[in-house]
Amino acid sequence: MSKVKELLNYLAHHDYLPTKYREEIQVLLDNQPEANVIELLVRGGFMESENLARVEAEFFNFPYVNLEDKSSIDFLDLLPFELARDCGAICFDKENESLSLALIFPEVSTIRKLNSWASESGFYLKYYICSLLDYEKELAHYEMIEPAVKDMTVEEKEVSGFEVVPIDKIVNTILTQATTVGAEEIMIDSSSSGVRVRFRLGGLLTTVLSLPLTVKDHLFGFLKGLAQVPFEDAVGIGQLDLIVNKKELRFSLSALKTNEGEKLVIKEISKKESKFDLESLGFGSHLKGIINKGLTESKGKIIIFGETGSGRTTTLYSLLKQLNPQEKHIVSLENSLESNLSGISQLQMKPESGLDYSQAIRGLLRHQPDVVALEEINNQATAESALHLAMTGAHIITSSEASGLVDGLSRLLKLKMDSYHLSSVLNTIIAQRLVKRVCPHCGSIQEMTTDESDFVKQELSIVPREKLPRGIDLSGKLFKMQSDGCSWCDHSGYLGKMAVAEGVSVDEGLRSDLSSVQKKSEIRAALDKLDRLTMYQDGLIKVLQGRTTLDEIVSK
User: Fold this and answer.
1) The CATH fold of domain 164-269
2) By CB distance 3.0 to 4.6 Å, which of 195, 426, 490, 540 could disulfide with 211?
3) Residues whose CB falls within 8 Å of the CB of residue 378, separated by 6 or more in sequence, listed in order
4) What is the pTM assigned to this prediction?
5) CA 326 distance to own-chain centroid
6) Which CATH number, 3.20.20.80, 3.40.50.10420, 3.40.50.2300, 3.40.50.300, labels domain 278-555?
7) Do the Cβ atoms of 371 and 297 come closer than 8 Å?
8) Sign of the CA dihedral with 395 first, then 401, 404, and 409 last
9) Below-70 pLDDT ranges, the chain
């Protein structure tokens, strides 16, 4: 019997894992032989990462180690990065010629591979068990960089090319680490003190690497050259096609020069079709109903308002995914192609080459598309072109930067969009922002204080009962989620983000009210006539559902 099956039986026998779950996991492993049993148990929510590691240590008769209590950064590079990644191992201590390695799962083949390397390198190995989460955090701090780069100081000025500074290896290391730990984006910024590399994990930025200032020009030049971003431009956007971990991957790169230095933001672009789902983004059933109604219209405009970083593009993709490209001619005009949408014609804007939104829209008129998506309306020319296209009968889905519905409509009017014509083509307007999700691993249910309960009940008392999700009862005690932080969420109490949103269908009554508005107060008065669920109320509902905290909603 394999060690994997023995471990699953051990977990079931000692009531750590129900028998039915053991059987489900075994089926998954049989169908996916390359799958990692520890990842399945943890990511599937069957066991908490640290608890599983302690049981593993008991089962394998290896000591358990909590890497958070160890200062392993000085010992990481003693074990080559490839071995650490492939064997699920972290070197966290050294005494003479003896290395202490923490493993997430001590398979026989893994032990043999590590012992073979140690024999060739002149080391003795002592094995421990660590949690999957601790392992991934340590792996994110790995520095597989040439000693010449590691030993350089900020004061060193003479750098003579890639022989001394292996920029390609630094880039490969950064991208390998990012893809290994599932970073949402990579941010590289420079200042007078050096270069800092940060990963966005679970919505939060974490510093993973610091480099000397002498590396800056070579690193930034190398990346911008690969992405074909002009070096002298203050703002630039490009793409990188690279092989990372033996996989062909595509990354978007945006460059920005500021008074403090230069910044690069790198995101992986999936060449495969990505999944976009309104429910997983945080949209409630009431708002999904409004959006679905707008999508069934054969013409008119759906506009998504939100501030920078509010997830507008992701929502726009989610709306497009609900349409049937087999029945409709759908074209998407985008600043950068961040994901592949099957069956949809995606076109990247290149203003430096003369291809902007207004020019692309004029060209589309000859092709008569059924649906046109514009990633963003950000100037008067684009606004006028989009309005003209909507008036020809096309269905437009677009977004614009704003803090809410009132602010969004007001900004469009400032772009010289006539209120009468704008209102005549609107069918749905949405506004959203992102809030942090409560960490499910350390969150606990607590009764709200009297003041908190009274406040929430007062805010939600005016919401029609049919707009409240099932399970929300304002008549009794109210409860909230609170989290103190754990290793899963880097002790922040939050893990990931979701949208809080509001939206309305533009019916004839609202269309008439909006047709002559000029001021924010008039727009607000028109919207306040509706029995709508506001973004703030949506946030409070998510507090009652245990999805975010009251502090997060009130502070926003």
Assistant:
1) Beta-Lactamase (3.30.450)
2) 195
3) 400, 401
4) 0.58
5) 29
6) 3.40.50.300
7) no
8) negative
9) 1, 31-35, 71-73, 140-166, 202-203, 270-275, 325, 352-353, 487, 490, 556
